[in-house]
């Protein structure tokens, strides 16, 4: 993946626990959102359809995920 800005989840507490990052600048054609593990940034990111990613984020915000 080219060098880009990754945004860490605001739910991260900064202690190195479970955390994901996403890269809005790498969203593929606006339909796929790249997501990676913040503790293992060398791995290939997963890509999720933007609608699925949005639903996941909204679920987290509402405490449903």
Count of spatially separate domains: 1
Quaternary structure: single chain
Indicate the percent of residues in helices.
10-25%
Q: Identify low-pLDDT runs.
A: none
Question: What fraction of the residues are assigned to beta strands by DSSP?
Answer: 15-25%
The number of helices is 1
Quick summary:
This is DUF397 domain-containing protein. It comes from Streptomyces tubbatahanensis. By secondary structure, the protein is an alpha+beta fold.
Model description:
This protein is of the alpha+beta class. It has one domain (7-61). The chain has one helix at 50-61, and strands at residues 7-8, 20-22, 32-37, 46-49. It has a 4-stranded antiparallel sheet. It is flat and about 35 Å long. 5% of the residues are buried. Residues 5-61 form the DUF397 domain. It holds the Pfam family DUF397.
Topology:
Layout: E1 7-8, E2 20-22, E3 32-37, E4 46-49, H1 50-61
Antiparallel strand pairs: 1-2, 2-3, 3-4
Q: What attributes does this structure have?
A:
about 60 residues, 4-stranded antiparallel sheet, about 25% strand, DUF397 domain-containing protein, DUF397
């Amino acid at each position: 993946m080219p060098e880009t800005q990754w945004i860490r989840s605001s739910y991260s507490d900064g202690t190195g626990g479970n955390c994901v990052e996403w890269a809005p600048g790498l969203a593929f054609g606006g339909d796929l959102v790249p997501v990676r593990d913040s503790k293992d940034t060398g791995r290939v990111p997963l890509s999720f359809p933007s609608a699925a990613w949005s639903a996941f984020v909204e679920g987290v915000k509402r405490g449903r995920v």
